[in-house]
Give the backbone structure.
Amino acid sequence: MTRKIFICSLLLVLVCAVGCGSKTTLITGTVNFDDGTPVNFGGVVFQNDTNTYTAQINKDGRYQTRDETYRGLPDGVYKVWINGSKVVTPTKERGQLPVTTYRLPKEYRSASESNLSFEVKSGKETTYNIVIKKATSAESE
């Protein structure tokens, strides 16, 4: 019985030690169009080989990687893209299917298209400001 308690205690200590060793870094920033207008919708997506994290963009274009789900991002290099689509639900009278409209240029809308990347290093809070071009009507489809 004493041996079981010892082994359980040892496992608990090991689990806590491993969990406490994972460091995250708070990333804050803004997302603006190249004319200075804030992007006030969607989310900034940080994606690496193992995880995807999304930080909501607020009405003044600011975001942060800390919320009720996670405290920040683990170290690593991330592909960065902006989730900024909007699903428009048509009226019943028209009988159409919902339509997805994209409010950002194609090169920012997915990990495969984006040329944005960011390296997270343990330490202090880090700022990553993103400037993107506005979508033309042809790119919005």
